[in-house]
Specification:
The chain is 35% helix and 32% strand. The chain is an alpha+beta fold. Helix 1 packs across helix 3.
């Protein structure tokens, strides 16, 4: 596999990131989310919604060559918008992005960070040293989701 380079997300990336997220979600989440949840999720990541999210938080993308292969963000102490392009799942891109955002948060002075995991991603996060905190029930676009709030102490990095 080629080397992964991580850089700050740019406005010219918004369309590619919106597509990456929706393609990932359709493939990975359709088995655990209901039809209504999938529709709400997809509307939560339209191009316009992505633009709003990406300017209100610190977002980074993983690049291999000229291709965006993953994205991750940090809003306050919460990891958000963490997705990998389907062709690159299981190839270290997610680990590289998660490590990058953990280091970024630590350099920003945070002692710990959180994320809300869908049911299918919990084991990935646990392997990266994240600990479950509690089940949460956020509402996106009027639809309730069940997620697991997870936490990582950054002093251990």
């Amino acid at each position: 596999m080629h080397e992964v380079f991580i850089r700050k997300l740019s406005p010219i990336d918004f369309s590619a990131v919106s597509i990456l997220i929706t393609e990932n979600a359709k493939h990975t989440l359709s088995g655990v989310y209901s039809y209504d949840q999938m529709q709400a999720f997809l509307s939560y990541y339209t191009l316009e919604a992505v633009q709003q999210k990406m300017i209100s938080a610190d977002f980074f993308c993983a690049m291999i060559g000229d291709e965006i292969v993953g994205v991750i963000g940090l809003e306050d102490d919460m990891v958000i918008g963490f997705y990998t392009k389907l062709d690159f799942l299981g190839k270290g891109v997610g680990k590289a992005l998660l490590s990058y955002i953990e280091n970024f948060a630590q350099h920003e002075g945070l002692g710990n960070i959180h994320l809300a995991s869908s049911p299918i991603s919990v084991s990935f996060y646990e392997k990266q040293g994240w600990l479950p905190v509690k089940k949460i029930y956020p509402t996106y676009c009027g639809v309730i989701f069940e997620e697991l709030l997870m936490k990582k102490e950054l002093t251990a990095i």
